[in-house]
UniProtKB/TrEMBL annotation:
Transmembrane segments annotated in the record for this chain: 20-38
GO cellular component: membrane; type II protein secretion system complex
Topology of the protein relative to the lipid bilayer: Single-pass membrane protein
Database matches in PROSITE patterns: PROKAR_NTER_METHYL
Protein name: Prepilin-type N-terminal cleavage/methylation domain-containing protein
Source organism of the structure: Heliomicrobium gestii (Heliobacterium gestii)
Keywords for the protein's UniProt record, in alphabetical order: Membrane, Methylation, Transmembrane, Transmembrane helix
NCBIfam families associated with the record: IV_pilin_GFxxxE (TIGR02532)
């Protein structure tokens, strides 16, 4: 009997290749790896687009801060932005805020020369036509970004009377 098992063991050592069980274990490990990694990799494009929004907001913020300083601490109104194009022609921005399409390629950024009520901040600055600016975009398929659907990403720039009327910035959605 011992000879039989020794002969079987010798045959097993001489075999080349993998057993079915070994192959099934490898397939199971690969399946687990895919189950863990695919959901994490699935939203990388959305994260990259959100980073694009963040970069756009930084450019808008720099342009608005420069305008604010050069125009005696006044913010541009929505009419100045959309009609007069005060921030473009290379002086502050290469392209106007409302002409810039969000990274999803569906909406232009919405510009509002006011603060949303959700901030809880009600500044009172005399001599300034606007006390704050909201710039936002959405990653939905809505045709135009408006105050109602602009909740995904917002940048709020407001005049802070407690800090010598300097501009303060708040980001939402990141």
């Amino acid at each position: 009997m011992l000879e039989f098992w020794q002969k079987k063991m010798k045959q097993a050592r001489e075999q080349k290749g993998f057993s079915l069980i070994e192959l099934m274990i490898v397939v199971a490990i690969i399946g687990v790896l895919f189950a863990v990694l695919v959901p994490r990799l699935g939203n990388t494009t959305d994260r990259a687009r959100a980073a694009g929004v963040r970069n756009d907001f930084k450019a808008f913020e720099t342009a608005i801060r420069s305008y604010y300083i050069e125009h005696n601490n006044t913010l541009p109104t929505a009419t100045q932005i959309s009609t007069d194009k005060v921030l473009m022609n290379g002086r502050y921005l290469d392209r106007e805020i409302t002409d810039t399409i969000d990274p999803w390629g569906t909406n232009a950024y919405a510009y509002t020369a006011s603060l949303p009520a959700t901030t809880g901040f009600t500044p009172a600055v005399s001599g300034s036509p606007t006390t704050g600016i909201t710039i936002g975009c959405t990653n939905t398929s809505a045709a135009v970004a408006t105050a109602a659907n602009r909740t995904n990403f917002q940048m709020i720039i407001y005049v802070d009377p407690a800090n010598n009327n300097a501009l303060a910035t708040s980001y939402n959605g990141f």
